[in-house]
Target: MarR family transcriptional regulator
Amino acid sequence: MPNQSQNNEIKAQLEDFHTLYKQFETNVLKKHILTKSSFSLLNHLDSNPKTIKELSHDTNLDKSTLSRQVDTLIKKNLAMEIEHLDRRLRTVQISDYGQELQKQIHQQLDEKWDTLFQLWSNEEKQLLMVLLGRMNRSFQLN
Model:
């Protein structure tokens, strides 16, 4: 297959990009003493309180795993538990500190994207969006 070599090179380039970006993201989170899973959970909390059951549905994680992760967020003052009369119902929401940290991290990640594309023309960015859109649609079809 003559295209196999080219396909392998495209795949290698995408894997390299994925690895480099994940390393950057991990380093940003490490500076704030957060894991990817903790940050993801913060993003699911937004500013709306959610029950463990709702979070389980949103994240596809089991309730025991979520409870441990939520406990960690609470200990770090990134989230807080909302008291209920029914003690079986556990609801959490992001704290003000958690929202501020989340905002800082998103800003740092956005700044990286701005830096990456700073020297790209609008046409190059548009071409990349078209090609990535085509790739995403191809994945969805298969």
About this structure: The CA atoms of residues 67 and 137 lie 36 Å apart.
